Amino acid sequence: MAVSDLIQQARTRFGQSPSVLLRADESTGEKPWEMFVTDEHTAHYLAIKTGGDSDTGMLTGALGGVGSVAALIMCSILILSGNTDGIWTGVILAAALFVIPFLWETRHPLPLPILLNRRTREVYFDHNGKLYHSPWDGIQALAGEFLMVGPHTGGMRNASLEILVRRLGEPDNALLISLGPPMGKTLQMQKGLWEWLRAYMDNGPWFDENGQRSDSDAYVKEMLSAHTKPTGFLAFRRQKIADKKAANEGRNYLEWTDAVLYLGHLLFYPMNWLQEFTYNIAKRRSRNRWPQIVTERLQPNGPTTRLIDLERERGLNV
User: Fold this and answer.
1) I need a labelling partner for 76 at 20 to 30 A (CA). Which of 19, 188, 234, 291 fits?
2) Domain ranges of the chain
């Protein structure tokens, strides 16, 4: 699939809707934005979520964080009341409510992310166990808006951002892959995401709000922290209360909504923590599915040869 094919894709898929062909060596004029798609941001590679794994850990969090905790609380009440009947049943139930869903979810493979390797300046993608790749230099992306119409939501404008990758050892076998879900995005937002990726690959790992190289990680960390994890809600609410206390000099600063929200986050914290813990374990296990030719290139001292060069030199096929 050549550049002309990408242009034809834009014409046929988006029709009269706005669409544009983006290039790795050309600025879009937008500020770099992170669109809540980053899974890992390291000095050597950037991992982008591919979707399909957002619910992982939810079952363990619900059953373990709610069911197990409730069972243990009941056991504690029985012990304090001097009634030891049924305590072991409660302990076994609490353990089962955590262990069974945890084992099931952590052994269910997660979709591998899209990897952008700064050291080799490549993109890696796994599709049904097959490795696809593309050199970053010269890469192009297809961005376009489209309208989705629903009976309850009406018309909702969305925008996609896709790049072309080729099967390792089979360069004629190509895929257009999406860099994050298009729902609720605009063409401007997707251009901002493209600038984020350009800034990372060309000036990263740390850069400022203009995409220029920076010795400080402040801007990148600020953008990444905008996507607060559920376990961060408790700390966020605690900080809000502390700010109110400081602003009012400790007098009449606590409102009933603060107390309700704080207690609510405290109540659901075990569930949220278990969900994130389970997801991280499942993610770590899934990363082992990358072939060695990829994992060794993600190491700080790994090979820097590109896969496309190995294909040309050796006729590589995996």
Assistant:
1) 234
2) 3-299
